[in-house]
TrEMBL record:
The lineage of its organism: Bacteria, Pseudomonadati, Pseudomonadota, Gammaproteobacteria, Oceanospirillales. This is Polysaccharide lyase family 7 protein. It comes from the Bacteria. The keyword Lyase applies. GO terms for molecular function: lyase activity. InterPro entries: Alginate_lyase_2 (IPR014895), ConA-like_dom_sf (IPR013320). Keywords: Lyase, Signal. Residues 31-299 form the Alginate lyase domain. Residues 1-23 form the signal peptide. Gene3D superfamilies: 2.60.120.200.
Amino acid sequence: MKKSLALSSFLLLSIPLSGLVEAATAPSTKFDLLNWKLSVPVDEDGNGKADDIKEKKLNGGYVSPEFFYLSEDGGMVFKAPIAGAKTSKNTTYTRSELREMIRRGNTKHKTTGVTGNNWVFSTAPEEDQKRAGGVDGSLEATLAVDYVTTTGKDYQVGRVVIGQIHANHNEPIRIYYRKLPNNMNGSLYYAHEPTKKSGRKEIFVEMIGSKSNSARNPADGIALGEKFSYRIDVVGNTLTVTIMRPGKPDVVSVTDMDKSGYDKGGLYMYFKAGVYNQNKSGDGDDYVQATFYDLKVTH
């Protein structure tokens, strides 16, 4: 039986009038964020890495006026400039991004490993499936990409990751939005990264338009500010990505992960959503930004 953890709208009727204006800017005044933690591209605690906002703090009114706040039309705004703190030494790009936390603040579950905080594919060993917080999964989001970078090297300009499945060391999927400066519309594509031990190379799948550094304007592309939805589904070794837009047929792509190496023991998964800037060569204050209006996870 599937469990649904929806990032759904709700009203906080107990907000004191004296704090209403300040509280209204926090995404948690409208969304249940206890199922997530947030990385923002600042290092206020001075540990040399981007700050992590844990579940309870995030859901208790956290807001960053610059990088994470509630928009006037009721969406969660994520912003990541090129210059900013990174999450680790292995990461060279900034992000303002949610990380799935199935434990919902229950610190008895460790954040890493095959634990109640993470999930596994149904091709994983039975022991791992019993220990994990979920088996297989779906992430569905409705959003608009507001802005992408316009400076930097041609292969980095205009691209941003807006959704992921992250594993221990690899990423079964990263969904990219990309709009080049001279184009009116943007493209959508995704990367599938097998495990290193599988011996297979990363592949890219174009869904709307092209990922090319010199792509022409995609006639059926997605403009900045245009709302659309994506859904990532994993059942066993089948990865399905669906792009949904009002009044247009769905765009669907299926990737077979049978030889990607994710059926081994000890591998755990978690969803990510927000903006992961894929430009490190442009002006420091150049940035990416997206507004999410709905986000739902199911296991």
